[in-house]
Design brief:
mainly beta, about 110 residues, 9 strands, five-stranded antiparallel beta sheet, four-stranded antiparallel beta sheet, 1 helix, single chain
Length: about 110
């Protein structure tokens, strides 16, 4: 599954994301982060909040509950989670995306 991203992405630092079965690469900015993620296993995401997040689905499927509204996103879709809105979901094995976090320190390098 890590073949989703070409060498320039794979050469980025790995992001320290505490989820089993995820490979993530971190592009760091002074005021935001881009995370390139792919999942080898299903992952349940408990409800949580943080700064704004935008995801661009490259492969697979993710179910999200954003502020009480449930939706499924698949290849070619994008989602937006506004700042402070509670959200949860399920990420399925084979999922890959590019995620923008509107905060510079959401994740650290591995």
């Amino acid at each position: 599954m890590t073949d989703v991203f070409p060498a320039p992405i794979k050469n980025l630092p790995r992001a320290d994301i505490p989820l089993d079965g995820v490979t993530a690469y971190l592009s760091q900015s002074q005021n935001h982060q881009l995370i390139f993620m792919c999942f080898e296993k299903d992952v349940a995401l408990p409800e949580h909040t943080h700064a704004a997040q935008v995801g661009f689905v490259l492969e697979g499927k993710i179910d999200l509950n954003i502020g009480g509204k449930e939706r499924t996103f698949t290849k070619g879709d994008r989602y937006h989670i506004p700042k402070g809105v509670p959200h949860s979901g399920k990420i399925y094995a084979g999922y890959a995306d590019i995620t923008f976090f509107d905060e510079p320190d959401r994740y650290k390098e591995q």
